[in-house]
Amino acid sequence: MSETPLSTRNLDLDTLTHLLKEMGEKAFRARQIYEWLWQKGASTFSEMTNLSKVLRQNLEERFVIHPLTIDKIQHSLDGTIKTRFKLHDGHLIESVLIPVPEYKRFTVCVSSQVGCSLSCTFCATGKMKRLRNLDAGEIFDQVVMVNRQALEHFGHPLTNIVYMGMGEPLLAYRPVMESIDRITAENGLNMSPRRITVSTAGIGKMIKKLADDASKVNLALSLHAADDDKRNEIMPINEQNNLSVLMEALSYYYQQTRNRISYEYIAFNQFNDSIEDARKLAKLCKSFPVRVNIIEYNPIEAAPFEKAEEDRIDQFARYLTNQNIMVTVRRSRGKDIDAACGQLANKE
Questions:
Q1: From 25, 94, 178, 264, the catalytic residue
Q2: Using the 8-state DSSP alphabet, how is residue 115 labeled?
Q3: Pairing state between β 261-267 and 291-296
Q4: Rounded to two decimals, what is the model's pTM?
Q5: Full set of structural domains in the chain with CATH
């Protein structure tokens, strides 16, 4: 047994079973611990009350859990709740609860990295450096702890999870997929993968890997421009993953999985909000079924963009609708606490 405590949530069930057998424990104890970690969301070994006191003490000596701790909570006037979590190494991340009680929809937006390496010009997180990926337990904890907020404030559990917070999920592929496995497992949170959406700025080979791994989650592409020149200007990742590469990867993904695909499209004033931009976007919607989510821009410091005027957004959306494309116009939530799309940056 290593002198350095092992992170329990980084062990699969077989490994945990083997280590407990070395400690002289029965195999079923590992299943009990797994249930406490992934089904009940235990953050300490002392909570595991069906284990003996001696075993709990031995676990504390040999293992760690590394739970998140709440650093700060902010409440928006529209009901949105942003939580800043502290990780075991002192880094900070943010998660957002987006309630829509009238539709009984309660969504958590989770982070997958500390910071981000993609440097999208319109995004506050993109101004930060990527310090590290989160592990599966740290992603899982965001869901568990925000679910408690939903129950406390709205009397309703989470209905949806979106991997759209800090970081690029497909560059934290392994922990993201491990977290989804635990969230959807019967001995985990038992949530349907159809309620989960993974968002990407566009990494073709990882979209294909998602397809090859037979993922059942929904996929969202942060598109934001329907031609390469404009997309290169605002999203440097497009220079290595241009629209041709992405459309080929998304077609492959849909053929393999038949999972829902959506385009996230932030409308910037006088940049990508013209009818000509809508025509180009419509062409990108013809290869496979896709929903377009038009998002109101949330201005950030050190970015030259402004949100598009509402009448231009409405004209843009109407054009797409007339092309038989499913369109949703999303008004921003949580802007007054910097919790809206593109605003997560650990201010202060």
A1: 94
A2: S
A3: parallel
A4: 0.91
A5: 6-64 (1.10.150.530), 69-337 (3.20.20.70)
